[in-house]
TrEMBL record:
PROSITE patterns: DENN_FLCN_SMCR8. The lineage of its organism: Eukaryota, Metazoa, Ecdysozoa, Arthropoda, Hexapoda. Gene3D superfamilies: 3.40.50.12430, Folliculin (1.10.10.1730). One of its GO terms (molecular function) is GTPase activator activity. GO terms for biological process: negative regulation of transcription by RNA polymerase II; positive regulation of TORC1 signaling. It is found in: Cell projection, Cilium; Cytoplasm, Cytoskeleton, Microtubule organizing center, Centrosome; Cytoplasm, Cytoskeleton, Spindle; Cytoplasm, Cytosol. Belongs to the folliculin family. This is Folliculin.
Length: 342
């Protein structure tokens, strides 16, 4: 579909250029530009000079009275012709498990794939709700991930939540210390922001473990933990029975500092969470899409590094919508990829 659009749009552009060139040649024969420049060098007046100062419409430049009608007809034809030959390929995960395929009329593509249709209408399963229980969170509550994150942001405030968000995305260890239900919920929400291959989660450790073992770790309040540092972002949750009036129940302790320019993904996540018009289900789908987008960027950058093209990385990252401020995030997300993708 894309090559078809490109080729035909090039034809439209070429035809418009041909019209304009013919019109230019006619005007050049009547009033040569070189002669006009020599004339206007000595005098600012002149019919040719004055005429060139006027703003000209596309119909005048091309000498085609109905040029916009022609452009409209070209574009309509391109879209209609493309639509007739456009084939929509649905992800198999969205299709019913039991389908009656029409294998007699399959289509072999140039890429080596086989396209098949179903004899009966295929019903899409657009319910993207994933099971709440995962291997890392066997006792997770029914609270959606987005609701957990929004509650954390509301309790912590923008600044402390941003520290927690930044640390989660770039691979700094998140240490949650507090009662079991709130601890598991917080770890579930924060760890869901990074790809599964980048998560090393322990929700109920009996002792503190180093960041190289787990980047998301939860401990009880009785477990000894290290002092706050730049490599560990600690979230202390105070139990309800120990909570003091007018004192927040969640406290972030981190001695690191945020960069002047935050990662692009972090900014997008913050803006989405702040938009109250977006429901939890919509935000969840949006977060999944963002995560896949940046995971793919990390894969491409990682592959280029593995092939020895480090000098081309700045230009590549720019073309992918990333910048130097995203480097730590991309490096952290590359940890779950093969060491030598080449």
């Amino acid at each position: 579909m894309w090559p078809f659009l490109i080729d035909n749009l090039k034809e439209v552009i070429k035809e418009l250029q041909d019209y304009a060139e013919r019109k230019y040649n006619i005007e050049e024969s009547e009033c040569p530009q070189r002669t006009m420049r020599l004339t206007t060098a000595n005098s600012s007046s002149g019919s040719c000079h004055n005429s060139t100062k006027q703003v000209r419409a596309l119909s005048s430049i091309t000498n085609e009275k109905h040029v916009f009608v022609r452009i409209h007809m070209w574009l309509v034809w391109i879209l209609s012709a493309g639509a007739r030959h456009f084939i929509e390929i649905l992800p198999m995960s969205l299709l019913d498990k039991e389908l009656d395929y029409d294998l007699e009329h399959r289509i072999e593509t140039e890429e080596g794939f086989t396209l098949v249709n179903t004899k009966l209408p295929a019903h899409l399963n657009l319910n993207t709700t994933e099971p709440q229980t995962t291997s890392e969170f066997p006792e997770i509550s029914d609270s959606p991930v987005i609701l957990i994150l929004r509650n954390l942001k509301k309790i912590l405030g923008k600044d402390q939540f941003r520290q927690l968000l930044y640390s989660s995305l770039i691979g700094i260890q998140i240490l949650v210390r507090g009662p079991k239900p709130q601890r598991i919920e917080s770890l579930h929400g924060l760890s869901s922001l990074v790809p599964r291959a980048c998560r090393r989660v322990h929700v109920q450790a009996t002792e503190y473990m180093e960041p190289n073992k787990y980047n998301f770790i939860g401990v009880d309040t009785s477990v000894a933990v290290p002092l706050p540092s730049a490599n560990v972002c600690r979230l202390d949750i105070i139990a309800n029975e120990h909570k003091i009036e007018n004192i927040t129940s969640h406290i972030v302790k981190w001695t690191g500092s945020l960069p002047m320019k935050l990662p692009t993904l972090l900014i997008k996540l913050e803006k989405s969470l702040e938009d109250e018009k977006l429901g939890n289900s919509v935000l969840k789908s949006h977060f999944i899409a963002l995560q896949k987008e940046w995971a793919n960027i990390a894969k491409v950058v990682h592959a280029m590094k593995g092939r020895g093209h480090r000098g081309d990385l700045p230009g590549l990252m720019l073309s992918l919508g990333a910048g130097p401020h995203d480097k730590k995030l991309l490096d952290a997300w590359s940890m779950g990829l093969p060491s030598n993708p080449a």
